[in-house]
């Protein structure tokens, strides 16, 4: 019986993803994007704050990338430019769930119950700030063997926040066949947290050879995996980014806006295919998402039945991303 239910879930998720993939095909009828938008904020320069002022009332949650956590000691680095962002968020009426980041490097502290308790306490301290409605957890570089320990940490955080009436979102990287992505038990994390934020980009990452940020087929595959967990709690993240690869070495992340401005300065011809643009400039190869591609993927998520979508990150996308899209209702 359990196997039959699992098979039915996979088949149902595949059908859901097929709807999303169909929405990406040329000539497809436009679909509505998800009504709720979870927006990361990576900086607070003038452009980011202007974008928040422009479309803040179309955002359901704002997640400034503020806190750095040391999982070994539980120490937290304080946020940057907090007050201007909070003022802008209050004017827009959007709740703030700041991001707590940790790059663990596979630290054994995740496996140690005492160290884990320190980490939980640090996260709860952040979320308890009266200026916040919740917190967003982004813990990366886990070992695949730390899957159960990380799930236990998230459950402990969720339980502590529920008592304080605070919300919890948890980030998970794009699924891969091996490596750190195996440390994220999507069903268990979605059951514990209010939202599970799933990266759909980095099909080609900065460490690999130059290539598109994602593909329609790869995006549909992530939607299928997410739909198999929950269409109401899992949130596909759209990446308003790209990478610039030098002749040797890894690529460097750039925003879509920066990539487009760089190409204009270089007067370089570009190629556009499947929601990605590419060009060469001064020895670098650049691939980045396009505004049209981001809109198409947002609509595909809506066609697949997802209630939420996320944007990484606010102000990195061209203003045209929002043009022609239905007004998002919170």
- State the assembly state of the protein chains: single chain
Strand content: 15-25%
Biggest sheet, in brief? 8 strands, parallel, barrel
Q: Structural class per helix/strand content? A: alpha/beta
**CATH overall fold name:** TIM Barrel
Quickly count the domains.
1
Please describe what this structure looks like.
The protein has helices at about 1-25, 45-55, 80-90, 115-125, 145-165, 185-190, 215-230, 255-265, 290-305, and strands at about 35-40, 60-70, 75, 100-105, 135-140, 165-170, 195-200, 235-240, 240-245, 250-255, 270-275, 275-280, 285-290, 310. Strand 11 and strand 12 form a beta hairpin. The chain has an eight-stranded parallel barrel, surrounded by six helices. A five-stranded antiparallel beta sheet has the order 10-9-13-12-11. The chain is α/β, with parallel strands linked by helices. The chain is globular and about 55 Å long. It contains nine helices and 14 strands. The protein has a single domain (about 1-240, about 300-320), classed as TIM Barrel (Alpha-Beta Barrel), CATH 3.20.20.80. The two termini are about 40 Å apart. The longest helix has 23 residues, at about 1-25.
Topology of this structure?
Layout: H1 2-24, E1 36-41, H2 46-55, E2 61-69, E3 76-77, H3 82-92, E4 99-103, H4 113-127, E5 134-140, H5 147-163, E6 167-172, H6 186-192, E7 195-199, H7 216-229, E8 234-239, E9 241-245, E10 252-255, H8 256-266, E11 271-273, E12 276-281, E13 284-289, H9 291-303, E14 308-312
Helix pairs in contact: 1-7, 1-9, 2-3, 4-5
